[in-house]
Amino acid sequence: MSKLLLILLLFMGTTVVNAHPSYGIAVDDEGAIYFADIIHNGRGSVWKLTSEGNLELLLSNFHAHNLILTANQELITAQGEEWHTLLRLKPNGIKDTLYHTANFREFNGGNYTFTSTGNIVFGIDNFLWVINSEGKKRKLSDHMFGWNQIIHAHENGYIYATDIGDSTGKIYQIDQAGKALVYAAGLLTHLPRGYDKHQDVLLGMTSDGNGNLYVAETAGQRIIKILTDGSHETFYRSKDDYFPTGLDFSNNQTYILEFKMKGGNAGPRITRVDSAGGRKVVFDFETHHKKVSPIVAPNTPNSGTFLWVLGMVLIMVIGVIVFLKMKLHAPAT
Asked: What is the band of 310 on the pLDDT scale with cuts at 50, 70, 90?
């Protein structure tokens, strides 16, 4: 019985702890910063930090990992838990549902991007898929990924997708014909504790307008810059036990979304890096929450996670009972 109990506890604990944080961040033409956050407000939040420093809650109890700001300043984001809904938030406040399903294999709101031509690209079951503006779905490429978590639609028309399946960390470039090539490799930092496939991951990707690609890497607590020839270098490294999850560029400045998981969750915070490398924390949720009237309840339980944990406890109890009954009725030897 002790072995069965241990296995169930380990399975439940590992699954709950290992959800990676949000990585979506975007800066609009007026200097407002939009970012995703799955720590606060039930399943999570989508926030807007105005250029004056005012924090606005755009979506509550909404489990968004990513968000994308289009050329016409429309915000695209998706719920990626239980139900998978892709939303468009227009500058005038109107919200449109672009896609909705309860079947994550039909559309996975936890791993997607939105192209400049209006196509939805998402990853599930080791492949990338595309849904066009008419709602028709097809496989983007025949390339089979080991473990893809992040997709980026580049302005050059290529799709870039991470793969951490072999524990080295690769980014693939997929052209419009579906041909996939390794664009960069050897991106994951290997720590002395050994590789953890749930914690040592590649997260948010973006580009700088000069053809260079950037990706967040959690184990090394850094942003990696990938040059046009596929070589790479460390562009930024977080401090104080934080790690970067995503970034965006605006007016020759870089805005980096960061979280902390050591000694308890903290964040999000946003660090701005100027062209000379100077850093400034322009937003820290913990500090901001203490200074102003709260528009969020940090201790509000995540209803979806709570019900899931409750279900797992019930399964564990039932499993123990069944095990005991089987042992009780087993023939003597």
From this structure: low
Domains and CATH numbers, the chain: 21-301 (2.130.10.10)
CA separation for the pair 68, 292 (Å, rounded): 28
Q: Using DSSP, state whether 181 is helix, strand or coil.
A: strand
Gap between the Cα atoms of 86 and 77, Å rounded: 6
**Band of residue 268 on the pLDDT scale cut at 50, 70, 90:** very high
Burial of 268 (0-12, 13-18, 19+ CB in 10 A): buried
- What is d(CA 108, CA 123) in angstroms, rounded to the nearest whole number? 7
Find the length of the chain.
333
Nearest C-alpha neighbor of 41 from the set 300, 306, 304, 308 = 300
Residue 139, strand partner residues: 129
**Alpha-carbon distance 259 to 256, whole Å?**
10
Biggest alpha carbon–alpha carbon distance for the chain: 78
pLDDT at 216: 97
Rounded CA Rg of the chain: 21
Amino acid identity for residue 191 in this structure: L
Q: 227, 226, 281: which is closest to 257 by C-alpha?
A: 281
Question: 2-17 and 303-328 are packed helices; what angle lies between their axes, rounded to 10 degrees?
Answer: 170
Burial of 294 (0-12, 13-18, 19+ CB in 10 A): exposed
Residue 119: which of 157, 80, 149, 173 has the closest Cα?
Answer: 157
pTM value? 0.83
Sheet of 180-184: strand order equals: 151-153, 159-163, 170-174, 180-184
